[in-house]
Design brief:
About 15% of the residues lie in helices and about 45% in strands. By secondary structure, the chain is α+β, with helices and mostly antiparallel strands. It folds into 2 domains: about 30 residues, putative 5-dehydro-2- deoxygluconokinase like fold (Single Sheet), CATH 2.20.150; about 60 residues, no CATH class.
Length: about 110
């Protein structure tokens, strides 16, 4: 699915961009006037990452940076919905992968 986080479900949301002119009253002006309103989109900051799953497999996901910062991920693995720590798949992550297997046996 395009432009949507695979974990949290964040996707593009829409709002308004308001164009104004004038000077605020507290600065000595006569006030700010709205001259136009147009639609705009707020897009999530998605990153593509490889992660290790507890069953030993790797998975490529597009996730929001808020999910990466939280460090935890909730996915359906082998038919069960599980929450486990986010471990990025890299060549030097064998130790982290072994710790993940020990914590979350399947």
């Amino acid at each position: 699915m395009g432009r949507q986080c695979d974990v949290s479900g964040k996707k593009t949301s829409y709002g308004n961009q308001i164009t104004t002119r004038g000077k605020a009253k507290y600065l000595g002006g006569v006030g700010i006037k709205t001259t136009g309103i147009s639609r705009r989109s707020f897009q999530p900051n998605l990153q593509s990452i490889h992660i290790w799953l507890p069953n030993g497999k790797t998975c490529r996901l597009r996730v929001a940076t808020s999910v990466i910062r939280s460090g935890k991920i909730t996915l359906e693995v082998d038919g069960k919905v599980q929450t486990f720590p986010l471990v990025k798949a890299a060549k030097g992550s064998a130790k982290a992968r072994e710790e993940l297997k020990a914590l979350y046996p399947i």
